[in-house]
Design goal:
By secondary structure, the protein is mostly beta strands. It has strands at residues 14-17, 22-25, 29-31, 34-36, 40-47, 50-55, 58-61, 66-69, 81-88, 91-96, 101-105, 108-111, 119-125, 131-137, 142-148, 155-161, 173-174, 177-182, 188-192, 195-199, 202-205, 226-233, 236-241, 245-249, 254-256, 267-275, 278-285, 288-295. The strands form eight sheets. It has a five-stranded mixed β-sheet, with no helix packed on it. It has a four-stranded antiparallel β-sheet with strand order 5-6-7-8, with no helix packed on it.
């Protein structure tokens, strides 16, 4: 329905915040002369005139037009695209279902052999050239973390599974991995059932987070499943997830932001991004989209 409660039959696939108010937008994917308004899974912006979208295909906003980007079928098959990320506009990565992973270097797309069939959900990197991706199968409690230092040759950094506490970090992590974020201090954070830190080639729990260990957080008393982790530094970290989990670490303590956390909440936060003093979080409450912008 529109703002008056009248059914709106026009299809939209994005929302735009201009600093004052929201508006709905139609971002087209032009295929053989016809515009399709398909679902968009991810957006990544370098500048206001250099924005990349992906879902059923890749779209580039160049400041004037939405340009459909053709990816060869031998690079990307009939798979859902879940996340697009890059260190610069001429070096982009896409991750998706069935372990799909592709890289754009300048104008050339390359298929990356990920070595997994899990659904890849997130990708992140630092300015040192390290790139990390992760994937999961929630029903089976499985996860994976992949990494590369040259952009093409990827390796498995860690696997997640339902394991007893005595086997943690030897060599597996516990549970699914939904998100990865690399800070600029050679530290990697991975989140899902639990939140982990990888530093000096060693995995450990993120110990500052309360009850963050196998057997902790009984009945999701402190937080729900973590869908996204992002931040600016090791003393400025955000996590969001289900049951209205929105927590920020200031270097000393973790604090719930916005509405109080509740194990019975129907708010599920799915995505998060941090830019300077602005934090944007998106998800859903029941069957409706839910968005929160936090300014510091």
């Amino acid at each position: 329905n529109d703002s008056l409660g009248i059914p709106d039959l026009i299809i939209y696939n994005s929302l735009y915040w201009d600093g004052t108010e929201w508006s709905v937008k139609r971002i087209p994917y032009n295929y053989q002369g016809t515009d399709f308004i398909s679902q968009i899974q991810s957006v990544f912006a370098f500048t206001p005139n250099d924005i990349w979208f992906c879902g059923n295909g890749v779209i580039h906003w160049d400041g004037i037009n939405y340009v459909a980007i053709t990816i060869p079928t031998n690079v990307w098959g009939p798979y859902q695209m879940n996340k697009i990320w890059g260190s610069r506009s001429n070096e982009l990565y896409i991750v998706g279902s069935s372990g799909s992973l592709a890289r754009k270097k300048n104008s050339i797309w390359q298929k990356i052999v990920s070595g997994t069939g899990l659904t890849l959900t997130d990708i992140s990197g630092n300015d040192k050239g390290d790139v990390y991706a992760c994937g999961l199968n929630i029903a089976q409690g499985k996860g994976i973390v992949l990494n590369t230092s040259n952009g093409f040759s990827w390796q498995t950094l860690a696997e997640g599974d339902i394991i007893p506490p005595t086997q943690i970090f030897d060599p597996k992590l516990y549970g699914s991995i939904a998100s990865v974020w690399a800070d600029q201090d050679n530290t990697l954070y991975a989140a899902g059932n639990l939140v982990y830190r990888y530093k000096f080639s060693k995995w450990n729990y993120l110990k500052s987070l309360p009850e963050n260990f196998i057997g902790g957080n009984p009945n999701t008393y402190y937080r729900g499943f973590i869908n996204k982790v992002r931040g600016k530094a090791s003393n400025d970290i955000w996590i969001v997830g289900d049951r209205n989990t929105v927590r920020h670490f200031n270097g000393v303590t973790w604090q719930q932001i916005g509405l109080p956390y509740s194990p019975n909440s129907d708010i599920i936060w799915l995505d998060l991004d941090v830019k300077d003093n602005l934090v944007a979080i998106s998800g859903m409450k029941g069957n409706k989209a839910f968005i929160m912008i936090i300014k510091r």
